[in-house]
Amino acid sequence: MDQKKNVNIRSYSEDNIEILEGLEAVRKRPGMYIGSTDSRGLHRLAWEIIDNSIDEAMAGFGKKIIVTIGKDKSITIEDNGRGVPTGKHKSGIPTPQVVYTILHAGGKFNSNSYSSSVGLHGVGASVVTALSTFMEVTISRDGKKYQQTYLDGGKIISKLSIIGDSKVNGTKVKFIPDYNFFSKSEFNKSIIMERLQENAFLLKGVEMVLVDERDNTINNYIYDNGLISYVEFINEGNTPLNQPIYFSGLNQDIEIEVVMQYVSDSYDETVLSFVNNVKTDDGGSHETGLRSAFTRCMNDFGKKYNLIKEKDKIDGSDYREGLTAIVSVKIPEKFLQFEGQTKSKLGTPEAKVAVESVLYEKLSYYLEENKDFANLIIGKAHRASSVREAARKAREEARSNKKGKVEKLLSGKLTPAQSKKRNECELFLVEGDSAGGSAKQGRDRVFQAILPLRGKVINSEKNVIDELIKNEEISTIIHTIGAGVGKEFDIQEINYGKIIIMTDADTDGAHIQVLLLTFFYRFMKPLIEQGHIYIAMPPLYKLSKGSGKNEKFAYCWDDNQLEEQKKLFGPGYIIQRYKGLGEMNAPQLWETTMNPNTRSLIKVNIGDGALAERRVNVLMGADPKVRRKWIDENVKFTLEDSFKKDGAE
Questions:
Q1: Cys staple from 237: which of 198, 259, 422, 626, with CB 3.0 to 4.6 Å?
Q2: Which CATH homologous superfamily contains domain 24-221?
Q3: Catalytic pick among 178, 431, 461, 488
Q4: 477-500, pLDDT tens digit by residue?
Q5: What dihedral angle (degrees, nearest 10) is formed by the CA atoms of 257, 262, 267, 268?
Q6: Domain spanning 227-387: which CATH class is it, in words?
Q7: pTM, two decimal places
Q8: In the chain, which segments carry CATH 3.30.565.10?
């Protein structure tokens, strides 16, 4: 180690203490402010500015927000709200300069400007300035149009000045992120489009527009029915049992909206929740209030009309089987509490009381006025309770006979791991006997287990759990994982820390992946939620040159890697395109796909619960017209194949 560097590391005095002025702290440690410098962090910059426009719309100012992705890697957000104040702040600095260059400055720390808002941390706009090479703010207000420009992390290159007259109000912010921080990322049209559409559902009557100059497309979203349109959008592809039921109310200054709809061809429960238009993926007190009020209403109605007896074992989850519900609350800053740093779980106790009070009152009245619907749901709950009880008994029976019964079922199918340490063990679900044979020979037998799959598994989106359990492949998977299924699934009892889906890199392999993921999503969702499901990434190509001891070879996982290796190898190479796992021998499969030190895995997670629900409904549901429509709108097919069989160039 260099002597000078060694002294700097070991010494610690007043000379080592730095004061980072202005926005320097953000550029020094961007992850502290935006979470990461990957794609999520890049899009977080967009959300910070978009959320300011959404706050204006939530406050009742402005009915249109336009987001434009530029060819120059910029993004522009424009609204027709009140416009950022342009006068001098009490600090003596022009107010826009305060908003866009000073941390912890904003109009959301009291209730005078916003009764509720998306962003409450007060660092949003200034952080965007800090992490941009260019930012131009244009404000229309009080009949004038003002503009100010910042470069390279907030350097002011022009004073706030009037550039013309304006008959409208609003704020327009254009910025180019500093891609030295986000070198491997770019703005993703689909991600921004989904976020805008979600907010259009939540902000009834507000138009969201996405303009992408890169492909000259424009997408508009406006929903006059708000959350009702949202629940219908999620359930598209399923058969509804009822028209959406919508309730709204005010309790303790908390605004509450709830919408509910049942579908006949799903046995899952989908509850989405939002606080001030921010999705709370981990739920919280508002979701607790919804579930509590719903269960109490159904129990009270059932007992009042003698539809539920004391001996019945119906619980809340039985009532909610097949239910899609959305709860959205607007909470004043004085009440707002979140658990943890990510704002993904609401902790406000007043929200539980408010939601429970409003929903219980309105749902009780609705059930009295719609007794046929109430009878239908209670009948469904009885059946769900019976299935749950049968599954519980079957599970207990399986436990008592586990050694003989399960071993008999898995005999000749599962090649188990030797280790008894469950968290360290891996289960490979392998497509086909041929690949399964290579995987068995190439694996590390201490911690890797192999379960070959023969053909495509049953579509769990179109079948009830009773039918699924009768399917041999699904039944084998359930018993191999060893933690039950459906409502009786217990994540604490899984036999493997990683469950890895390993299929061919073709359309059949992709279909098997989707079928397995649909099953896990519907009947073992905690496996995905807690990060136990992975997809193996076998290579697409093997590039080789020479023979024997002089052979040089490399594996490539995509076309870009292939092109890079072709340049390195030079003329005379040979390319092998792997059409299936079975084309690799055991050492090759171990080296490329199974060895923890060299393999690549995709970890499966649920980033957006509503989007995941809709994708499963559309792609795996019973309505082919809805599926075909989605494919036509989202998938581009081509007959081109750039693969060349040899490298004699």
A1: 626
A2: Histidine kinase-like ATPase, C-terminal domain (3.30.565.10)
A3: 431
A4: 988 998 888 877 889 989 999 999
A5: -10
A6: alpha beta
A7: 0.74
A8: 24-221
